[in-house]
Task: structure prediction
Amino acid sequence: MKVLITGGAGFIGLHFVEKLLKEKIDVVIIDNLSSGIKERIPKSAAFYKANIEDLTIENIFAIEKPDYVVHLAAQVSVPVSMKNPLADCLANIAGTVNLLQNCVKYNVKKFIFASSAAVYGEPAYLPIDEDHPQHPISFYSLSKQTSEQYIKLYTKHFGLNHSILRFANVYGLGQNSHGEAGVISIFLHSIFEQIPPIIYGGEQTRDFVYVKDVADGVYCALHNGSNHTFNISTNTETKINELLTLMVKKVNTNLTPVIKPQRIGDIAQSRLDNTKALTELHWVPRYSLDRGLQETIDIYQQELIKARPKKNGDG
Ligand SMILES: NC(=O)c1ccc[n+]([C@@H]2O[C@H](COP(=O)([O-])OP(=O)(O)OC[C@H]3O[C@@H](n4cnc5c(N)ncnc54)[C@H](O)[C@@H]3O)[C@@H](O)[C@H]2O)c1
Result:
């Protein structure tokens, strides 16, 4: 079995690649390295530096003939999508259509798409289930919603199987602070640099899901839940204030945050119902926020120690 992963050099991609390699599955990665990191790609994965918008990616499909395609590559920044809607549209919509065309042409068994909780917009009720109305606020969320519609029509007209996974706020090791939901990595960076973290508002809630659980969810979608859409989330709300308190306590520091007004367009509350993923994808998330944060902080700390220049007499 061979799985082609777009965005496989990114945050979620690398965790998913690691999971596949552990299961002895052949991995092919397409990534343009716009934010992905080549050095982190395992040697046993085939890697193509390529842009998903480029028509020449057909050559990769012709050579590799993947059984499954997991589409994670995206322009992930909401502010960038607002500044440059065309670039967002080309990467997120045209890039997806380019992949879908090749999936049909090369008889891919299933297309798994990384969508986002952002498609729902301001919640009308909590927890948000998959049938919740969709009111995208940004061009990023519109590009995810539009891609979902393309995927469903490819299933209808060309019989391409799919699963659409709407991720909540993913966190864990390897996340950069520029993405869609980098609040935990931003706080982590501030805490370890001893820079007072900035909180915009603080009373807003988010549903934080650990990246290893997300990788497991994507893995479950290879064989389950065909032609359905799933929230990949914890069904738990955490206030940003509480999150920071928990992180500061875990690192045992006494930094006081800088409180700024809540940003315009920031959603007040978010919690996504994950019942459908648990029952139909047979996904079993294993990490509470407490456990996921502890693991993230522990590894982050170990990596900082390793990266620190050795003083005379050390080791
Ligand atoms: N991180 C989250 O909390 C979150 C939440 C909801 C949805 N998502 C979605 O999950 C997916 C993965 O997100 P992530 O957090 O790992 O982001 P990431 O930025 O770490 O990874 C994206 C990867 O895609 C690559 N890429 C970007 N544009 C490309 C292009 N045109 N061609 C080829 N490669 C390209 C980047 O180099 C990067 O390696 C994205 O589709 C994102 O929208 C993420």
User: Anything to note?
Assistant: Residues 207 and 237 are 5 Å apart (CA to CA). The longest strand covers residues 110-116. The mean pLDDT is 94.
